[in-house]
Fold this sequence. Notes:
Strand content: 35-45%
Distance between the termini: 48 Å
Low-confidence stretches: none
Shape: elongated
Order of helices and strands: HHHEEEEEHEHEHEHHEHHEEEEEEEEE
Helix content: 25-40%
Structural class: alpha+beta
Number of helices: 10
Largest sheet: 8 strands, antiparallel, barrel
Radius of gyration: 28 Å
Amino acid sequence: xxxxxxLLAIAFLFSHQLICANDPELQQKMRQHVSILASDxxxxxxxxxxxxxxxxxxxxxxxxxxxxxPFEQMNGEFLQHFRFRQNLAWIDGWNIVxxxxxxxxLLRNEYIVLGAHWDHLxxxxxxxxxxxxxxxxxxxxxxxxxxELARYFxxxxxxxxxxxxxxxxxxxxxxxxxxxxxxxxSPVPLNSIKLMFSLxxxxxxxxxxxxxxxxxxxxxxxxxxxxxxAPNHTLRLRDxxxxxxxxxxxxxxxxxxxxxxxxxxxxKSPYHKPEDQYHLLDYEGMVKIHxxxxxxxxxxxxxxDILPSPSLIxxxxxxxxxxxxxxxxxxxxxxxxxxxxxxDEFYRANSVFxxxxxxxxxxxxxxxxxxxxxxxYDFNGSRMEGGVFRRHSxxxxxxxxxxxxxxxxxxxxxxxxxxxxxxYNFAGSAAGSTLDFEIYSEQEWGYxxxxxxxxxxxxxxxxxxxxxTGLFEDSQVNVFDSNGYFSLGYRF
Length: 492
């Protein structure tokens, strides 16, 4: 009977919301929050600025006003302090954390997180000019949304079965530092947090033609529920996949095995630009998202179970054991130069451009070691007496990487690598004449050495390849290929 009454209450309230989707009062509240947080006087909410302090105090005041309660575990305060090092300076950061208690005697001990980062890029000075990055869409919009969602559930407690954690994260722009700190220092047991939403850039609904719920499929049956609610609010859903966004505060939660969803209207906005100002936002769209999220969260709070998908369980297990994703793939682009070594002589050939493009497969072996298999189309050669020598080849390197461990929520990895390669030469020319593979070798063996830095899936590095077998079929002529490349890559 209780469940029937709850469903009838939900149906009534959200049908009323659909009629009032253009609620001018809620639009005005959203606009007020964003205009204050993105005002020039707040200096872009940069770390360590007076503007950041004003923004922090404003959010705390709003939490109090809308009925968010502080945790006793945090000494009855909203502020969760942390310190981190940036270059040579130690920086103070502040997460703003509270909760709204659910009404179910059992489910109230489980939590859904509604989060949004409140920091932004601050300002820069150049040639005496001060340029402020106000960060209206990124992410005053998300903060405004969680404040008004908190107000809604405080006013309608009967719609909330599980409890909500409302949190504004600091230092997201510096590498998700605030959300990492929260996950490591949660005021409730981490296994009692069943689902996390990061509302990050929700102010451009119409411009981007819909709402992304990236990571919704990291929850079992999450997509089906999300899609069933959308028609109630004439809302268009876009990305609802299982991949958890690494560039917002969902990443640390997902790495801990918590289904995590990036609520995001899209990047079609003045992203990280001074033009990201409050008057450009789509407040009617923000009301639509608010109404949709309030129904979605209400229904989720009453679900008998909120469970991670099998793929998220596998990912979290791999992260916990320090091996990251078991298998990943990506693309590599190499550009550099090559030449031929005459090991029996005192000279070498001159260098010419060399390059390759290809795919790779990574298989982590342990916390520190990773196996990487690559397949490239390769363009190599040298400038010799009489003209330029060129070969078109397929190259298959197999490298062992030794690097910093893949640990929970750390997006940076440095590694060195070494291993053998096989090259098959299928075409080429020497001084304008086609290569005769009765004279020149079709096959080549050698080794690769190098190092690389990986950041958020992007790779920058340097590779040296040296042949151990000769250029010619006649093994008495000792000429060997040598190449050096600068590499750019992306891990899917």
